[in-house]
Amino acid sequence: MSQHGYMQNLLADGKKPQTATEKIPILARGAVSDRAKETLNLVERFVEEECIPADTVFHAQLGEAEKRWNTWPPIIDQLKERAKKLGLWNLFLPSNHFKEGAGFTNLEYGLMAEYLGKSRTASEATNCAAPDTGNMEVLARYGTEAQKRQWLAPLMDGTIRSAFLMTEPDVASSDASNIKLTMLRHGDHYVLNGSKWWSSGAGDPRCKIYITMGKTSPNHKNVYKQQSVILVPAGTPGVTVQRVLNVYGYDDAPHGHAQIKFENVRIPASNIVLGEGRGFEIIQGRLGPGRIHHAMRSIGAAEKALDWMLARVNDPEKKPFGKQLNEHGVILEWIAKSRLEIDSARLVVLNAAMKIDESDAKGALKEIAEAKILVPQMALTVIDRAVQSFGAAGVCQDTPLANMWAQIRTLRIADGPDEVHLQQMGKNENKRGKEVTEKLRWQKEMGEKLLSEWNVQPKSHL
């Protein structure tokens, strides 16, 4: 069945709720193509009707003991084939910068990513899962033709997965200039020594490539020219996956967040990306769009949490103190605040996506930072209210809320902690200090001049 026919089938039977396209904020609607609107509706139905039901099977199929890290739930392969047939594949690469991908803008993909964020399986099913999306952007934007053939092509086909190695256990990685992993040139190879952790994706047996940041020129006078990015094939001699880290007790199998040791790891010089000293440039190009992807998925998680809260408070069996939950004023206040906060945060994210489309990630640093800081905090607040509405059930495995909270909480640290972005935003905003001081001084002087011209005295406002 064609993509159009499938969607028409889904929408044909009786009166349906608002479609995803109808829910696009009016401010952004004119910037979304008809093709993107049709795909957005299809993404919504695919997630709601196929991926979310499959999430339960995904968790049931996770392996135990050693199988947890050398197998993966087979239902994900079925969902991938389904997504390919529906044309829901590699939706993320923005059309104004890449010839690869489905040809949507950051805004259009951002709207789709919201729905992907409602399901554990949806992002991977559509080949739009982190860290692969960011790694594919690195290869598509900066990779050589040989690097693209070897690594980008199978990543875009979904036959392999990847990991991103930047954070280190022994330094303050919020300042990436602190990284210590050495990448020293020896003839036609680089030799790598050091440790990485929170290497998301490295636990997956399908992970075949590590996008790795290290220092090639530790003595360069410019601390932002000391770092480079190199492609490290998984299984290279000297690379040891030491352990997989838990996130609030969740191991995120088979994806995983690994701690990895490098001991005299020899990598061909041809695996360097863009050239020595270009690491910061590459990482900034990678993280900007990625932060928007995380933010939109977080909007979806918040929407899902609100759905669960609404279902709970409308359960006729739940009647504390003689009244149904939805009859208690505090509950209605939670619902109203959650709707306000979600809708407000969505506009901040879409504004950032549109700004990236207008220029690039570098030209949208303020807007990206706003979304990166605001959205996870909003989502955590909404999820926490949903947890509270469920009581003890909200913190156990009987709902997805506890796991959702754990995942979103990491985003306040990932891709740069909130405090780093707040500090930079504060510095940039404070640059207006001299300008606004002069403006206020001028306005005061003009007011005094007008008082004199009109021969009146100022009056107290008290």
UniProtKB/TrEMBL annotation:
A molecular function GO annotation: flavin adenine dinucleotide binding
Acyl-CoA oxidase/dehydrogenase middle domain sequence ranges: 163-264
Cofactor dependency: FAD
Listed GO biological process terms: fatty acid beta-oxidation using acyl-CoA dehydrogenase
Gene Ontology CC entries for this record: cytoplasm
Classification via InterPro entries: Acyl-CoA_dehydrogenase (IPR050741), Acyl-CoA_Oxase/DH_mid-dom (IPR006091), Acyl-CoA_Oxase/DH_mid-dom_sf (IPR046373), AcylCo_DH-like_C (IPR036250), AcylCo_DH/oxidase_C (IPR009075), AcylCoA_DH/ox_N (IPR013786), AcylCoA_DH/ox_N_sf (IPR037069), AcylCoA_DH/oxidase_NM_dom_sf (IPR009100)
Keywords: FAD, Flavoprotein, Oxidoreductase
Annotated Acyl-CoA dehydrogenase/oxidase N-terminal domain residues: 36-158
Record domain Acyl-CoA dehydrogenase/oxidase C-terminal: where: 277-427
Domain of life: Eukaryota
Subunit structure: Homodimer.
Family to which this protein belongs: Belongs to the acyl-CoA dehydrogenase family.
Protein name per its UniProtKB record: Acyl-CoA dehydrogenase
Species of origin: Heterodermia speciosa
